[in-house]
Design a protein that fits this description.
The protein is mainly β. Helices cover about 5% and strands about 30% of the residues. The chain is built from two helices and 44 strands. The strands form five sheets. A 14-stranded mixed sheet has the order 2-1-3-5-8-11-14-17-20-23-26-29-32-35, covered by helices on one side. Strands 4-6-9-12-15-18-21-24-27-30-33-36 form a twelve-stranded parallel sheet, with no helix packed on it. An eleven-stranded parallel sheet has the order 7-10-13-16-19-22-25-28-31-34-37, with no helix packed on it. Strand 38 (about 455-460) and strand 39 (about 465-470) form a beta hairpin. The longest helix is centred in the N-terminal third of the chain and has 16 residues, at about 5-20. The protein is elongated. The N and C termini lie far apart (about 90 Å).
Length: about 575
């Protein structure tokens, strides 16, 4: 007779047994593309066996019972890379793990985030048509090279898939692209019916290389997200395996769905999105988080590896580029025309905590951005902000630091903006500052908000008594005061260091006076300037600059840093 404890133990064992998951492993032993009984197991035979839940012919001898977590492994005889040339593989209709790292000699990446990938991949799928389509969800593809005219991983139905440690669109060593021959092909597609996938991951072994789709005839994408809830982390997108040279996609990542995360707040999940022919990343949806990535630089963050047009283009609403948390800011430098472009009609987006135009340290020039570090074409967006960690460093860009050329209500606050070859903040695209107008009744980008007029005097070598007047509409305005090393172009300064702020209210004639107050400044930063932001979020250009050496509107051209 069993004791009570023995009965409970037996019941536990029985319950555990009833909850076990059946799983089979099929090992691919040949690099052909047949389904014939010929003494070897092909990838096609392995996929057909997974789909049917049974060995499809006498060559296949699965180990274990077919179930819901089957594995396709590889043991193909011989050294070197084994190329499997395939056409129109069947879609995979059950959860599966396809593991190229089971091939003898294959090794996952062990490099850190600044060193590219040193993965050794031994199984190469060269696809002349079709795709590797996952139609059941909860599947994993790892350790494969996938290329050729039509080489694509297609996340078709179901979700929760993991794509990790692969080379997509390149040769087996990640040094050159494999041409698509004029076909519209993306490396990875997450269809609308396949949400919540993970592409890459935080472990070094999870790093994918996603490159080589550029064809000029199309706008081919490295990673195309048409579903929600995806996480893309730790990948090289548009570069070679070392992260040091371009193997371009036309667009690195394109997002047409909401609530996706690209990157993260730790270095382990940083994506390098660089070297692509057009945009590094394009967002055409809502509530996506883009954080901690290198966009337009090499993997070290020290050299430009430009995306040819925009670093990041935002065409949706309520997306966050960067963020206020430690590590959330992106490095966005070296790109062709604009670092971050918030396009016409896009509202409620935040650009915060980023380094735009600098190296990874935020102090040295990488340059790029022939139009602007940040360009805003829609209304109600936020560049910087009052929260801790919200300020961007926007420096060394070849033209304006921030340009607002459309919409109203886009606030530009508390940022460090310096050493740009154009204006620090530009309202409109004329290339010259917009003069204040009486009563501030003119209209245009950010309502062409008038800037303050400064007066200042030095105080004992420790700082300045800074006062200001403002003529504008009737209302309450937030003034921010900055210091820097030079007044820059057009006698309008930039804002390297925020020295203080104040709120003022204009009277019935639209006039406000801010009495001088002591502001401490950093050594050598004798150029003073200010901005005004109204209650609706319209921020002005930087004011005419004062320099303590002459206490007058000063014109001091910047040293040319970026050509």
């Amino acid at each position: 007779m069993y004791t009570l404890i023995e009965k409970l133990l037996l019941a536990s064992i029985a319950l555990t047994g009833s909850m076990s998951v059946s799983a089979a492993t099929i090992t691919v032993t040949g690099n052909g593309d047949t389904s014939a009984v010929d003494g070897v197991v092909t990838l096609r035979e392995a996929i057909n066996s997974i789909n049917t839940g049974a060995n499809v012919n006498a060559d296949v001898a699965a180990v274990g019972s077919y179930g819901s977590s089957d594995t396709i492994a590889f043991t193909i005889a011989g050294a070197g890379v084994h190329t499997i040339a395939v056409a129109a593989l069947p879609g995979i209709t059950k959860p599966v793990k396809i593991d190229g790292y089971t091939q003898p000699g294959a090794q996952p990446n062990s490099n850190g985030p600044t060193q590219g990938t040193n993965a050794l991949l031994k199984i190469e799928l060269t696809m002349s048509s079709g795709s590797l389509a996952l139609a059941a969800g909860n599947s994993t593809v790892q350790g494969l090279v996938i290329n050729g005219v039509a080489g694509t991983i297609y996340l078709l139905n179901g979700g929760g898939n993991t794509i990790a440690g692969n080379f997509l669109g390149t040769n087996a060593v990640g040094t050159t692209a494999t041409p698509h021959a004029g076909i519209n092909v993306d490396d990875i597609i997450a269809a609308s019916s396949s949400p919540n996938n993970t592409i890459g991951g935080s472990a070094p072994a999870a790093r994918n290389l996603v490159s080589g789709t550029s064809d000029l005839a199309f706008q081919n994408v490295g990673i195309l997200l048409v579903s929600t809830g995806n996480v893309v982390q730790g990948n090289l997108i548009g570069t070679n395996a070392a992260g040091s040279a371009a193997i371009p996609n036309d667009i690195g990542i394109e997002i047409f769905a909401d609530n996706n995360v690209i990157g993260g707040t730790t270095t382990a999940v940083r994506n390098v999105i660089s070297g692509n022919r057009l945009q590094g990343l394009e967002v055409d949806s809502l509530n996506n988080q883009i954080e901690g990535n290198y966009v337009g630089t090499d993997a070290s963050g020290a050299q430009a590896l430009a995306n040819g047009n925009f670093g990041i283009a935002v065409g949706g609403a309520n997306n966050t580029i960067g963020g206020t948390a430690a590590g959330a800011g992106n490095l966005i430098s070296g790109n062709g025309t604009v670092g971050v472009a918030v396009t016409s009609g896009s509202t409620g987006n935040k650009v915060q905590g980023n380094r735009i135009g600098t190296d990874a340290s935020g102090t040295q020039a990488i340059c790029g951005h022939s139009m602007a570090g940040v360009e805003v074409g829609g209304g109600g967006n936020v560049i910087g902000g009052a929260q801790a960690g919200a300020a961007n460093i926007i420096a060394f860009n070849k033209n304006d630091g921030v340009r607002v050329d459309g919409g109203t209500g886009s606030s530009i606050m508390r940022n460090s903006i310096f050493s740009n070859s154009g204006g620090g903040i530009r309202l409109g695209s004329s290339g010259v500052p917009t003069p204040n107008d009486p009563g501030d009744t003119d209209t245009g980008p950010n309502n062409l908000q008038n800037y303050p007029v400064l007066n200042a005097s030095a105080v004992g070598g420790i700082g300045f008594d800074i006062g200001a007047t403002l003529n504008s509409m009737v209302g309450v305005f937030h003034l921010e005061f900055f210091s820097g090393t030079s007044c820059g172009r057009f006698a309008h300064g930039e804002g390297r260091t925020l020295t203080g702020s104040a709120d003022v209210a204009t009277d019935n004639n639209g006039n406000a006076n801010f009495a001088p107050q002591l502001f401490l400044t950093s050594p050598g930063q004798t150029a003073l300037t200010a901005t005004a932001t109204d209650a609706a979020g319209n921020t002005s250009e930087f004011s005419l600059c004062l320099d303590d050496r002459i206490f007058a509107n000063a014109f001091e051209p910047l040293p040319v840093v970026c050509q």
